[in-house]
Amino acid sequence: MNTASGKPDRTLIVLLSVIGALVVIALIVVFTGGEPERLDADTPEGVVQAYSAAVIDGDEQAAGGYLAEGAFEGCEDFDRGPTDNMRITLVSTTERAESADVKVAIVTSYGSGPFGADEYETQGVFDLVLVDDTWLIDDAPYELSICPNPKAGS
């Protein structure tokens, strides 16, 4: 691989440069996964995605726009815990003529230990109803529930 003068072969240098560039590109792709694909807002899955994103972002007013009129009726404001380390993944959807169930996996990460972050995963179901051709959430997993009309004085 070395020439008679002791200098490295140019082919070897080019090959190592190409391999190094591919490794850097692969690392960039892995560590910058990007935003998830936005689902159609006219589907049960799209409504759950938009609602969940609003709750995680702390925008309860926007999240309330995805709720059916009687959703969480009589609820009291409660501390559901932090949502900044929460990841929601679609598991399945069962759609009927006027209702739908969207099952999700809710993964919450806590701190980091010697083997990485501690994670806790649960599954929850969003119940949706079709109101005037619009899917609205009638019930949500408690980790993502909001109290849109807290009692006065709360």
How big is the Rg? 24 Å
Strand element count = 4
Shape annotation: elongated
Helical content stands at 25-40%
Instruction: State the distance separating the first and last CA atoms.
Output: 77 Å
Mean of residue pLDDT values = 82
- Output the structural class: alpha+beta
Largest sheet: 4 strands, antiparallel
Task: Return residue spans where pLDDT drops below 50 for at least 5 consecutive residues.
Answer: 150-154
Q: Please list the strands of the largest sheet in the order they lie side by side.
A: 1-2-3-4
* Strand coverage percent: 25-35%
* Secondary-structure element series: HHHEEEE
Write the layout of secondary structure elements.
Layout: H1 10-31, H2 44-56, H3 60-64, E1 86-95, E2 99-113, E3 116-131, E4 134-139
Antiparallel strand pairs: 1-2, 2-3, 3-4
